[in-house]
Amino acid sequence: MGVQVHELVGAVHEAAWLPWAVQYFFLVAISVTALLLSLPAFAFGREDMVAQGRLALMTAVTTGITAPIALLADLHQPFRFWEFFVYTHKTSWMAWGAWIVPSYVGLTLAFAWAVHRPGFAALGRGEWRYARLFRWLSLGGESNAFARPLGIAAGIAAIGILTYTGTEVMVVRARPLWNTPFLPLQFAATGFVGALGVMLVLERSLIRNVALEARLNRLLAVALAVVGALGIAWYGVAISGISPRHTQALASVAGFPVWHRIVYWAGLAVAIPFALALLAPRRSGWITGLIAIHAAWMFRWTVFMGGQAVPKVGSGLYDAMMPTGLTGLMGVIGTFGLWLFLFIAYTTFMPWDEAQLPEGDTPDTPARPARSV
Amino acid sequence: MDTTRRGFFGAIGQVTIGAAATVAGATSAAEAASEDGHVPHWGMVVDLRKCIGCQACTVACIMENHVPEDAFRTHVSVYELVKDGHDPAMVMLPRLCNHCDDPPCIPVCPVEATFKAENGEVLVDADKCVGCAYCVQACPYDARFINHETQTADKCTFCFHRTQSGLLPACVETCVGGARNFGDLNDPGSEVATLLRENEVSVLRPEMHTNPNVYYIGLDDVLQGRVAGEAAYHPEMPAEVTHHGEGL
C-alpha cells in the first residue's frame, strides 16, 4: 500500500543541547586523549617520547580546563551545578560524569604540576621578578617521583571520561543516530584525531622537529584509519539490516541532501589528512593538523546539532543545524578564545619545554634553602 | 467515576457551573486514595474520530499553564494522507506527554528532578531541575522542552494542579468534539477504562517499550512513529527538504 504523508501543522523543536555541548565534548575528548598520549613519557618513563609528551601534556591541561567551563555554560541553570553532587542519581550517566570530570581535571592538573615541579624549582632559584612565585609553585622541593602514580590515576580518570561521555549519549534510545555502541568508540577515535591535530599544529609553531612531526603524522594516520573503519562498519551494519536501530538511524537521514553533503565532507576530512600523513609525514604537519582538528570538531557538531535536527515524531528536519544568532556562536567563539588564552599563558609562564621523565621511586628531596630574597 | 467533559455536562443539572469542580473533585486523587486504598492511575484516551484539529486544547493548555510562546505542552499535528492514490484524508494527531509507566526521561535525570507521582503523572521539580536537557533528549515523543522563562525542563503534567482539585486537565475540559477523555485507568467503571475495553487502541512508538498512558482510537499505523513525510515548516532549508524521500 502506497501512502503519501504531508504534514500540514507540526511543531518545530529547537536544539536543547547548544553549541556549548559540542565544545565540551570536543575539548574534553582532546584533553583525555592527549593525556593518554603524554603517559608513555611522564608515567612510564619512555625517554624517546618526551618531546611528544610535552606537547600532549600542554594540550591536555589547556583543553581540560576549558572543557568543564563549556559544560557548565550548557546548563540552563548553571548556578545549580552543586545539585549534581548533592542529589546524585545513580541511574544517570550524566550524574556519574559530574564526579568523573572534576576528578579528571584535578588529577591532570596535579600530574602536570608534578611533571613540571623540577622546572618550577629551577626557576625559583634565580633572582628575578617571579622567582618567589615559582618557589611557591614548587612547594620547596623538586622531586617529581609521584608524577608516575598521578599520571596513572589521571589516565584511569581519562578512560572514565571517554566511557561516560560516550555512554551518556549512546543510551539515548529516542535518537537512533546516537543510540549505537559505535558512538563511544567514534568519540574516542576522533578525540585522538583532534589531539594529534592540536599537537601537530603546536609542533609546527613551537618546536619544528621534523622527526616528531613524522611520528605524530603516523599516529594521526592510524587514528584516521580507525575512524574510517568505524564509519564503514556503522554503515555496513545499518545497510545490512541486522540491527534495526542502525537501519532506522540511516533511514532517518538518508533522504536528505544536506546529510549526503555531510557524508562526503566527512569522507574527505578523513581521507585527505590520511593520505597526506602517509605520503608526506615530514612536511604536512600544518595541513594535516588543522584538518584533523576540524574533523574532530565537525564530527561532534554533526552528532549533536545534526542529531537534534532529526525529529523524533515529526517530519522533515528541524532547523537545528546552525545555531541562531550571537548566543549560539558565542559558545564556539568564547571557548576557543579561552583555550587560546590558556595556550598563551601556558607557553609563557610554564617551563613546558623542560619537562623531564619522572625520577625513580626515590623519596622526595628535602626542601632546599633556595630563597635568597 | 466520570471525569469526561460529557459527564461534567451531565452534572450541570444538579449543580451550578461554579461548583462543577466539586463534582469532579469527588474523585480527586487525595480522596480516591483514601479509605479503600484505591489509588487512581490517570490516563488519557484520544478518540481521533472526534478530533477536528481546532487546536482549542493547544490554546487552553497555553493559557492554563503559562506556556511560553516558543513551545507547546500539547498540540495537534495535522497530516494529509493519500493512500493508493485515493482522495486525500485529513488526519489529526493530538500530541502530549505520554506519562509513561517506564519513562526514559526519569533514569537519565542527573539530580532526580523528574519523577513519577503517585497517580502516574511524570512531573518535574522545577526548583531542583538544573536545565541540563538530558530528559528532553531522552523523551521519544518530543514532549519535553526547556522553558526559557524558567530555564528548566517543562512538559505536560496532566494539569496536576487541576486534577488535585478534582478538575479535568484544561485540554480535556476544552475539547470541542470530546476527543480527549481523561480518567482513572484503575477504575473499571471509568469512561477511559470502558473506552479501552470497547475499542481497538494504539499507542505512539510502541517499539520504545515505555508503556504510555495516552491511548489513541483510530490511529493510522503510518503516524505511530516518526512520520516519514513532507514537513510543514522549514524556513531555513526549504530547497533541501521539499523533495526528499525517506528510507534507504
Automatic annotation (TrEMBL), chain A:
GO cellular component terms given for this protein: plasma membrane
Gene3D superfamilies named in the record: Formate dehydrogenase/DMSO reductase domain
Protein's membrane topology: Multi-pass membrane protein
Keywords: Cell membrane, Membrane, Transmembrane, Transmembrane helix
Classification lineage: Bacteria, Pseudomonadati, Pseudomonadota, Alphaproteobacteria, Rhodobacterales
A Pfam family that the UniProt record links to this protein: NrfD
Signal sequence residues: none
Keyword Transmembrane helix recorded: yes
Membrane-crossing residue ranges in chain numbering: 20-43, 55-73, 93-115, 145-165, 185-207, 219-242, 262-279, 286-306, 326-346
UniProt-annotated location(s): Cell membrane
The protein's name in its UniProt record: Tetrathionate reductase subunit C
Membership in a protein family: Belongs to the NrfD family.
Recorded superkingdom: Bacteria
InterPro entries in the cross-refs: Electron_transfer_protein (IPR052049), NrfD-like (IPR005614)
TrEMBL record, chain B:
Keywords noted in UniProt: 4Fe-4S, Iron, Iron-sulfur, Metal-binding
Pfam families (alphabetical): Fer4_11
GO MF annotation, one: 4 iron, 4 sulfur cluster binding
Spans traversing the lipid bilayer: none
Keyword Metal-binding on entry: yes
Name of the protein this chain belongs to: Tetrathionate reductase subunit B
Keyword Metal-binding: yes
Domain 4Fe-4S ferredoxin-type span(s) in chain numbering: 42-71, 120-149
Domain of life: Bacteria
Organism: Thioclava atlantica
InterPro entries: 4Fe4S_Fe-S-bd (IPR017896), 4Fe4S_Fe_S_CS (IPR017900), DsrO-like (IPR054822), ET_IronSulfur_Cluster-Binding (IPR050954), TAT_signal (IPR006311)
